[in-house]
């Protein structure tokens, strides 16, 4: 079978949507021919190392990546009219939603060639917090959304809890038989606890996420505000990630007088990222709104034996229980501070949560189980 993956960002750009698309493509490549269609961004825009290309294609693992030149673009949205005719020879197309400028083209291609391919949609999140004029640009995608989901053969989501509380809840309630929960996964052989982890004088906190405008919802400013009231001798924080707002966050840390306790590590290789997870005593995901639908970094950290604190958001709140971590109110720095403070003072609870985190990931988020479920969708 020939399958197209259509996604707004892809490796080497770092982000949850691109990582999930890469995993899905890798799963399918074992049995099918897979081509990923994604906008062609300049190196300066992504902040990542460029991918070696031959024409508009580059080889990645066992699938091809077609990077299409946008006619218009803003942020991670890109108008790609050429996508319509590039999809004509595929048996199945999976759209990673949202993708302003790409979703419209998949919709149009499905109308023109509806007998040609089956349509699968993976719903990642709702795109909230957009400036007014950007909402105007996204209007075409909003207008065709109901029609797009109606014509889909299957809609996969990381969390039904998130969908039930999202702006497509009406679509979900109308077409529940189309929706299929497919949690994110982690390679538990790579992401694993460190043997003989040594105790430290201060608790090592960890944040992993993009530091660009597109990832404003990660709530790093709320996190800094929460840390401002904690005993400086009790903790230190490592931040993994890069982006155009890194300087802003460095200055913010100075403003809160916590800069000496924070290290900005930048982008790391997978091996070094795993080491950061393994060394962490507590992982924090302080996202502020529904742009955070699951939090892939949560299960990566948990797989390495780190307990977690995340915000009480639909989708995110179902990733773990109070055995593995704590939930804080979104945007509430005082509540986040209290949650962190409570765990800083209870090493025994931290250790127990870390062990429970690893056990949960092995049971619920291992790649093998989810890969089989995903492949079955296409095999059927």
Describe the protein in words.
The protein is an alpha/beta fold and 380 residues long. Helix 4 (103-112) packs across helix 6. Helices cover 37% and strands 20% of the residues. The strands form three sheets. An eight-stranded mixed beta sheet has the order 3-4-2-1-7-8-9-10, with helices on both faces. Strands 13-12-11-14-15-16 form a six-stranded parallel beta sheet, with helices on both faces.
Rg from Cα:
21 Å
Shape: globular
Give unreliable regions as ranges.
Answer: 43-60
Work out the strand percent.
Answer: 15-25%
- Name the strands of the widest sheet in spatial order: 3-4-2-1-7-8-9-10
Number of helices: 15
| Biggest sheet statistics | 8 strands, mixed
The CATH superfamily name of the largest domain is Glycogen Phosphorylase B
Q: What number is the mean pLDDT?
A: 88
Helix and strand content put the structural class at: alpha/beta
- Integer tally of domains: 2
Count of DSSP E strands? 16
Q: Classify the fold: give the CATH topology of the largest domain.
A: Rossmann fold
Q: What is the level-2 CATH architecture name of the largest domain?
A: 3-Layer(aba) Sandwich
Rounded to the nearest angstrom, the distance between the terminal CA atoms is: 12 Å
Short description:
Helices cover about 35% and strands about 20% of the residues. It is globular, with a radius of gyration of 21 Å.
